[in-house]
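Researcher: Please predict.
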Amino acid sequence: MEKGYAVVNREWKKGDLLMLDFPIVVQPVVASDSLNADNDRVALQRGPLVYCVEGADNNGQAWNILMPDNVSFVSSFQKDLLNGVVTVQAEVPVVTIAADGFSVASGRQKVLAIPYYAWCNREPGPMQVWLPRKIKNIKLNY
């Protein structure tokens, strides 16, 4: 490495092959504090792709998911999903509504994220890119 660049200095011959292995990891990207709507929220990025959570993969929900700091992610290729995509999974807190409709609870659930470009290719439903890192407020609406 020289000044941040990989330098390969050699006499190349026909048939020579240079193989590079760049590990692609999931990076939570924290929204800028100047973006009021996304304040204290994160988006998931893997390589050049941004991911989203969609109700189709998460019990019909996408707006009840929290993405705290220090989450462990697992990426895997799903050949039968959306014509083949790499998904991102994590076990994170989710908020659920009690059966009586008068209280809420939080618990942990495995959540699946798909590349943003692939959302809304199944049935209509909720989707979210910027996930809250913690509960800051509750807004009741229909």
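Model: The chain has no helices and eight strands.
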